[in-house]
């Protein structure tokens, strides 16, 4: 597989984070999560991911996390396990982030992860 990318997953629910982590791993990428009690921005600065996949409804989905991602050069991808795609795209637009909703197939997720900033 071509070069793997480090992906930090930030989700409201641990089960969603774990399932998304497994899905990301099937695409050949490296997965990390925040440590217990660690804020998402701190996790970004600790793990230095290439991509941050963040639940658009997570309490940390906002400017502090976006700033941390910019500082380390990580791309943001917003997702939702329960909202409509149009809603997630609107939330992602101000930060120029990609977005997706479930279900998503591994090749489609891999393509989003590998996509270059334009």
Question: How would you characterize the overall build of this protein?
Answer:
By secondary structure, this protein is an alpha/beta fold. The protein is 41% helix and 20% strand. Strands 2-1-3-4-5 form a five-stranded parallel β-sheet, with helices on both faces. Helix 2 packs parallel to helix 3. 37% of the residues are buried.
The strand count comes to 5
Name the strands of the widest sheet in spatial order.
2-1-3-4-5
Oligomeric assembly = single chain
- Shape category: globular
Indicate the proportion of strand residues.
15-25%
Structural class: alpha/beta
Radius of gyration: 13 Å
Could you name the CATH topology of the domain at 19-83 and 91-104?
Answer: Rossmann fold
Question: Under the CATH scheme, which class of the domain at 19-83 and 91-104?
Answer: Alpha Beta
Low-confidence runs: none
From the 3D coordinates, which CATH architecture of the domain at 19-83 and 91-104 would you assign?
A: 3-Layer(aba) Sandwich
The N- and C-terminal alpha carbons lie at a distance of 24 Å
One letter per element, helices H and strands E, the order comes to EHEHEHEHEH
The residue-averaged pLDDT reads 94
Sheet of most strands? 5 strands, parallel
What is the overall number of helices? 5
Portion of residues within helices:
40-55%
Label this structure with key terms.
alpha/beta, Rossmann fold, five-stranded parallel sheet, globular
Concise structural overview:
The protein is an alpha/beta fold.
Secondary structure layout:
Elements: E1 6-10, H1 14-26, E2 30-33, H2 40-47, E3 51-55, H3 63-72, E4 75-80, H4 85-92, E5 98-101, H5 106-114
Parallel strand pairs: 1-2, 1-3, 3-4, 4-5
Helix pairs in contact: 2-3
